[in-house]
Amino acid sequence: MPESYIGLMSGTSIDAIDAVLVDFTEQGAQLKASLSYPIDAGLKARLHRLCRAGAHASVDEYSQLDVNMGRLFADAVKQLLQQAVVDAKQIAAIGSHGQTVYHNPEGDTPTSLQIGDPNIIAEQTGITTVADFRRRDIAAGGQGAPLVPAFHQALLQQDDEARAIVNIGGIANVTLLPAKTDQAVLGFDTGPGNTLLDQWALRHIKQNMDKDAQFCRQGNSNTTLLQTLLADPYFSRPLPKSTGREYFNLDWLDGYLNDTSLSPADVQASLCELTATTIMDAINTYAPSSRRLIVCGGGVHNPALMDLLKNNKSAIAVDSSAQYGVDPDYLEGMAFAWLAYQTLHGKNGNLNSVTGAHSDRILGGIYPGERGL
Ligand SMILES: Nc1ncnc2c1ncn2[C@@H]1O[C@H](COP(=O)(O)OP(=O)(O)O)[C@@H](O)[C@H]1O
Ligand SMILES: [Mg+2]
Q1: Are 94 and 185 in the same domain?
Q2: End-to-end CA distance of the chain
Q3: In ligand 1, which atom is closest to the CA atom of 210?
Q4: What is the pLDDT of residues 29-69, one digit of tens each?
């Protein structure tokens, strides 16, 4: 009998909540239903303010947003169940990533904060909810991120070829899967995925994203700017590493923009190439035997970015995860459904070879639903 789980994901892009219903068996995972649940403009603006680097939000505002996001996650679950014509009683648990508002796993007080109160999700849906996955890994000495590589391994590892997976959300993260051997899986945030493209588009064309790369296509990537950006220390920092919008934002970019003769479209094209180059560099540096790159996340819909990845010099075959039967928009949501499954089965969710934790851990806090535990 398959066990049904729900995964909830809202990434650094703050574009929408991804909600998925997944059936798990010993053999694998099957996506049964999915939806993208909107976040209204007012709430989005407040979240963006809270996430801004160096933001000084009041505890009041922080707490209210925690409640508002908890309610929205619960609404997304209810709509998903209605759409799928599935009763809440049939769901074993929800895995909720939450909305990251701060991620800084370095230094004396490493932390990562996700909001969207899981008490509210459990109460309003009646379904046991697992949340707060990252902080256990951080408490165990890890980066708390990325957490999707263990699921990528479970779903996509092959014993006859090394594969790389990249999730291009606001931040891009790679998973480097060796052919099934005793070699460790590697994974890390390569740097910006779409976040700088989105932020630059908002500043210059007043759109939340550069839809279908139309703005980017009006310009040409500038080699000097690209090389300047690539020299940022994050890209050569040793593993493990993870990052967020606290680091990669327009203040970061403005600090490197000296050449005022560049048009905004030229900068956009350069940022697109920065994302593609840092992803390919990650593979060439840490897993040069990879001959296949599987792409998921919203970046798969950016044709200029996909062209750059496909035209790589290393003869790596690049395809959307759709070619492997996995919807690229919902793979990350599926990973959080899987992480809840792992937790309820008493199994570890992180890979310490990825996050740098002392060892693997059962992740998350459990908020019991109507049936208790
Ligand atoms: N048609 C498109 N053209 C260009 N970019 C797109 C398109 N569709 C989605 N994107 C990009 O994907 C992002 C959302 O990706 P997503 O994987 O949801 O990120 P996150 O995990 O950070 O929420 C958008 O903000 C946008 O940058
Ligand atoms: Mg998203």
Answers
A1: no
A2: 19
A3: 4
A4: 999 999 999 999 999 999 999 988 777 788 999 999 999 99
319 and 337 together in one domain? no
Dist. CA 359 → ligand 1 center (Å): 33
Average pLDDT over every residue of 190-200 = 98
- Tell me the average pLDDT across 65-82: 98
How many angstroms is it from 304 CA to the middle of ligand 1? 13
Q: What is the pLDDT of residue 260?
A: 76
For the Cβ of 169 lying below 6 angstroms from any atom of ligand 1, the answer is: yes
CATH classification of the domain holding 171: 3.30.420.40
Q: How far is the CA of 217 from the centre of ligand 1 (A)?
A: 17
User: Closest Cα partner for 306 from 275, 270, 266, 281?
Assistant: 275
Residues 347, 293 share a domain: no
| Residues 139 and 95 reside in one and the same domain | yes
Residue 220 lies in a domain: yes
Is residue 198 in a domain? Answer: yes
Structural domain range at position 208: 149-324
Judge if the beta carbon of residue 149 lies within 6 A of ligand 1: no
Structure tokens at 27: 């053999």
> Does any ligand 1 atom lie closer than 6 A to the CB of residue 342?
no
Burial 235-269 (b: 16+ CB within 10 A, else e): beeebbbbbbbbbbbbebbeeeeeeeebeebbbbb
For residue 373, the model assigns a pLDDT of 85
Query: Full-prediction pTM beyond 0.90?
Result: yes
Number of domains in the chain: 2
